[in-house]
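Quick one:
INPUT:
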């Protein structure tokens, strides 16, 4: 029987993943993209993820690995695992073509009113590949949210909110091209919704594979890799997208605000 902590962790992961549906809804009801809001929100998400990864998660991973391996080797394994997490998410990103990449920012009005509006086949391909790319990408994100929540529910909540914010434009990237290719809001929303489900699926698979072997060593390696994954996502996706969606200073104010909120929550609940 699953404990309340495990159920809570799965619930947070589900919440983060299904926020792609929020992006779909925004795309259907908005005629123009609110670039200033998205820029600030994505910057905020990046600030939360960078701060918590480097200040909290990396340190907890090092403490766990040092308890198992000693101070020096613990730090070495933490560092290697951190960059291994970056390598994993970078490897996944390399296989997503730029045209279909859901992390390449596109405005709603750009995909609906341009004289260079793509043909329906091209739009369908864009939407389906975006959904597939997000599903693959959400596996490690789901594991990151779940692992964090399992260890520290308050920390897991912060990470889930940050990932949920970053999933909103991904929902737009899936639903808009699919809607204009098929003419069906239901199909567009469904594919966007399903791509978000990969996050709790990733958590479930990770839990199924690792829970029997969960000790300080496994926890430390996994947590350090999670930190690397989130820093990479922030630097490679969130910050560049925030810059392209809006003004530079709005994105940076969002980053600093995210760091302040994360720091304050760690002081209150850490």
């Amino acid at each position: 029987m699953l404990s309340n902590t495990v159920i809570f962790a799965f619930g947070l992961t589900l919440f983060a993943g299904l926020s792609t549906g929020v992006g779909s809804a925004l795309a259907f009801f908005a005629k123009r993209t609110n670039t200033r809001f998205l820029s600030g929100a994505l910057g905020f998400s990046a600030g939360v993820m960078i701060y918590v990864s480097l200040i909290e998660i990396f340190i907890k991973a090092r403490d766990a690995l040092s308890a198992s391996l000693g101070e020096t080797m613990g730090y070495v394994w933490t560092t290697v695992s951190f960059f291994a997490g970056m390598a994993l998410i970078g490897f996944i990103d390399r296989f997503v073509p730029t045209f279909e990449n859901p992390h390449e920012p596109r405005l709603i009005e750009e995909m609906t009113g341009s004289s260079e509006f793509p043909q329906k086949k091209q739009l369908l391909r864009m939407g389906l590949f975006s959904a597939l790319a997000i599903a693959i990408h959400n596996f490690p994100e789901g594991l990151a949210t779940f692992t964090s929540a399992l260890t520290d529910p308050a920390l897991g909540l912060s990470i889930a909110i940050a990932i949920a914010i970053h999933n909103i434009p991904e929902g737009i990237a899936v639903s808009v091209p699919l809607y204009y290719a098929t003419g069906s809001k239901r199909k567009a929303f469904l594919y966007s919704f399903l791509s978000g489900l990969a996050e709790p699926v990733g958590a479930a698979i990770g839990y199924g594979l690792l829970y029997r072997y969960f000790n300080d060593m496994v926890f430390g390696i996994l947590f350090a890799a999670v930190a690397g994954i989130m820093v990479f996502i922030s630097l490679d996706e969130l910050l560049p997208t925030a810059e392209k969606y809006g003004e530079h200073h709005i994105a940076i104010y969002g980053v600093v605000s995210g760091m302040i909120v994360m720091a304050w929550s760690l002081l209150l609940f850490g």
